UniProtKB/TrEMBL annotation:
Listed name of the protein: Acetoin utilization protein AcuC
Transferase keyword on record: no
Domain Histone deacetylase: 25-324
CDD domains according to UniProt: HDAC_AcuC_like
Annotated TM spans: none
Pathways per UniProt: Ketone degradation; acetoin degradation
Amino acid sequence: MPACTGPSTVVHDAAVAEYDFGPQHPMSPLRVDLTMRLADQLGVLAHDDADPGLKVVTAPMASLELLATVHSESLIEAVQRVSFTGRADLAHGIGTEDNPTFPAMHRASAHVVGATVEAARQVWEGESQHSASIIGGLHHAMPDKVSGFCVYNDVAVAIQWLLDHGAERVAYVDVDAHHGDGVEKIFWDDPRVLTISLHETGQMLFPGTGHPADLGGRDAEGSAVNVALPPGTADAGWLRAFHAVVPDLLKEFDPQILVSQHGCDSHMSDPLTHLMLSVDGQRAAHAAVHQLAHDHAGGKWVATGGGGYSIGSVVPRTWTHLLAEVAGRPIDPETPTPLEWREHVERLLGETGPFLMTDGRTPAYRDWRDGYDPEAWLDRAINATRTAAFPLHGIDPTP
């Protein structure tokens, strides 16, 4: 595992908990609170300048001008209006079951964008080698429409900020169980941005997109890459797919900075998806992304959160492992969770928090070069992506 050669940060403050669709909505802000508490109690966060952990940086508020680099004026005005009236605006996707209105909608959503843009700025301007925005990763939001629990697309705004400040090649890797459709669409015609999404097939899961043949616009073919995984894919299959696709593409694309989205709804206990990863498999994914940032992006890495709806048992452990990777100080998976943290989980959620930072799995996978099985749905999915995307990057798709 690469060691960080510079300082690393997490952009966060308590006000991001305003991003709250209500007590019955699966995307609870408690998952961020529980993550930051767990990370703090396990020594991942720094408390002074001498501490080697992650420095916590306050999240600024995104300006209207910054939001407008990606989003339409009509969407921004609609979100502001709904924040005061509470009335649905279905033309902009606001007021649905997935995206109910809430009073602080504009302020809270702009705060998420500000956090992720600050993480990108920290890395691009050299203040941090790695930076995380755990509240971020709202990858479904479209230029003119709220979608999939995502009001503004913080990831896309951060990538656009990087482009506007001199970046010529930005790679985006999305490991959420859902297709990163908003980020892909926003940069569909931009060859400066390579978007790679590994997700459960759209045949089974929202948003129903992200097929291997979806490759980018006419002047940016190959800039979008999609791996549509079969339901039931577990650690070994997921890691096989990741390593069969992502490293070769990043090596060829040669990004100046790597931005990643780490939705952990790929876990076997997540209530909204059908993938079967463990916390250990997700931890291996974080480590792989970290290594690729050093191998192919000069160590410049911006990591965001994303989906994840097993609030007490999965999200805090997985994202604490992510923050530890960002800090360059990975946590031993056999580490016990602190009693104080488990008691806090029980008070908030009425459930017993997990006792260890592991699900007891040892992630291992079969390398793609060791053979392709055309009878296996997973291997057919991997092969479809390699066959469609690799030649557009000058890469031989055969093992």
